[in-house]
């Protein structure tokens, strides 16, 4: 199960438990982190979902239930997670636990992995020119790579004939983002 259905399931169950009126906010914060386990969700969910918040009306007023680390165990409690949803409770054996390597930080979405001994060359195999640019303004200036260089801020001083070649030759800035 990926992030959205997993979050919806826990949120829905918390709402039902709030409606029952038999649990305190503190109870629900604990129960919310035991409904699903690591075996029930994709490995990336454990690193991307840090908390779930549900607002509910209790006998003593309206409160916000915050569940920190909703996926905190390997097995979870399927009976609580699927309460009222399924006639036959599946076994945890139906959900194999992913390999520990799948939970490593480098295997998660958006991970930055440093590659050693590799030289990165911007715009490799493309024609390059060097263009000296000086700002004559009193404020910092940013130039995005998506903007035609010839049309940039008039306070920048440079040989404005060279950028004509930039657009006609489909050249790009070799500046790291």
Automatic annotation (TrEMBL):
<dbReference type="GO" id="GO:0035550">
    <property type="term" value="C:urease complex"/>
</dbReference>
<dbReference type="InterPro" id="IPR036461">
    <property type="entry name" value="Urease_betasu_sf"/>
</dbReference>
<dbReference type="InterPro" id="IPR002019">
    <property type="entry name" value="Urease_beta-like"/>
</dbReference>
<dbReference type="GO" id="GO:0009039">
    <property type="term" value="F:urease activity"/>
</dbReference>
<dbReference type="InterPro" id="IPR002026">
    <property type="entry name" value="Urease_gamma/gamma-beta_su"/>
</dbReference>
<dbReference type="InterPro" id="IPR036463">
    <property type="entry name" value="Urease_gamma_sf"/>
</dbReference>
<dbReference type="Pfam" id="PF00547">
    <property type="entry name" value="Urease_gamma"/>
</dbReference>
<dbReference type="Pfam" id="PF00699">
    <property type="entry name" value="Urease_beta"/>
</dbReference>
<comment type="pathway">
    <text>Nitrogen metabolism; urea degradation; CO(2) and NH(3) from urea (urease route): step 1/1.</text>
</comment>
<protein>
    <recommendedName>
        <fullName>urease</fullName>
        <ecNumber>3.5.1.5</ecNumber>
    </recommendedName>
</protein>
<keyword id="KW-0378">Hydrolase</keyword>
<dbReference type="GO" id="GO:0043419">
    <property type="term" value="P:urea catabolic process"/>
</dbReference>
<dbReference type="GO" id="GO:0016151">
    <property type="term" value="F:nickel cation binding"/>
</dbReference>
<dbReference type="InterPro" id="IPR050069">
    <property type="entry name" value="Urease_subunit"/>
</dbReference>
């Amino acid at each position: 199960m990926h992030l959205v259905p997993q979050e919806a399931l826990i949120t829905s169950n918390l709402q039902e438990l709030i409606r029952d009126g038999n649990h305190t906010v503190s109870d629900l914060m604990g129960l919310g982190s035991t409904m699903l386990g690591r075996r029930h969700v994709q490995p990336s969910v454990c690193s991307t979902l840090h908390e779930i918040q549900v607002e509910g009306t209790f006998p003593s007023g309206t409160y916000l239930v915050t569940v920190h680390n909703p996926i905190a165990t390997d097995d979870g409690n399927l009976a609580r997670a699927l309460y009222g949803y399924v006639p036959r409770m599946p076994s945890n054996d139906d959900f194999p636990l992913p390999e520990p390597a799948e939970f490593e930080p480098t295997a998660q979405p958006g991970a930055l992995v440093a590659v050693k001994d590799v030289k990165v060359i911007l715009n490799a195999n493309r024609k390059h020119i060097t263009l000296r640019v000086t700002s004559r303004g009193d404020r910092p200036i940013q130039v995005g790579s998506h903007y035609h260089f010839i049309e940039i801020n008039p306070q920048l001083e440079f040989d404005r004939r060279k950028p004509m070649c930039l657009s006609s030759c489909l050249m790009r800035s070799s500046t790291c983002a």
